[in-house]
Automatic annotation (TrEMBL):
Any single biological process term in GO: nucleoside catabolic process
Gene Ontology CC terms: cytosol
Listed GO MF terms: adenosylhomocysteine nucleosidase activity; methylthioadenosine nucleosidase activity
NCBIfam families: MTA_SAH-Nsdase, PRK05584.1
CDD domains linked: MTAN
Annotated Nucleoside phosphorylase domain residues: 5-249
Enzyme Commission no: 3.2.2.9
Species this chain originates from: Caballeronia glebae
Name under which the protein is recorded: adenosylhomocysteine nucleosidase
Keyword NAD: no
Amino acid sequence: MKTKRLGIMAALPQELGDLIAQMRAAGEVRTVTLGQREYYIGDAHGLPAVVTLARIGKVAAAATASALVHVFDADAIVFTGVAGGVRADVQVGDVVVADALMQHDLDASPLFPRYEVPLLDRARFDADRALSDALAAAADAFIAEEGGALAERFAVAAPRVHRGLVVSGDRFIASHDALFALRDALPDALAVEMEGAAIAQVCYEHGVPCAVVRTISDAADAAAPLSFTEFLTSIAATYSSGILSRFLRAAG
Ligand code: ADE
């Protein structure tokens, strides 16, 4: 898919990998500060891009996505980062590419059906098919080429790429009870995080294609805080760099 300027977002620096360093190595990078965030404008593996860190949560993500579209002229947005695994077969080290996103903590009932975004008439927002296909292809290639090294260096066994529903909320899921409540309420949810559905809603409202790719850092259970922190510090950047570089080179 052809974009004039792709917006690339993550919540935390580890989730962006070496992208900004790569942009600096490739040429001039202009940095603009807005709303306590830095936006890096330059060439990302051959594609004109604006790259930024949203920080954590739906409000932060929505505000950042809005700025990408309205101030920085992004005509498509890709979000990369980590997530907790929700469906039982989605394991730490797997990659999930969202087909659709929804807010698992949105509840304006009985005024509106549970999960529905009031006055938008929908709970789920589709990710852009072409962008998501390209991200999934990049994730497949990354795992095919680097899977052996991942297993050796990080003890991540046979990672897989999944496609499906990603759910977002302003809550870090870190207990058996919270995880099973989520599985019961939304049986098709593959992974949980704190930004994706907010970005998907902003993009839907403005007719901008978006896609979300997440590496599973934890099982959203009591061990999640430790697993998340370890994954973030030691592995997340390897995944993001590996997937983004392949995605961007193929798109450029
Ligand atoms: N991001 C990564 N792991 C998560 C979890 N367990 N809950 C919410 N967001 C997450």
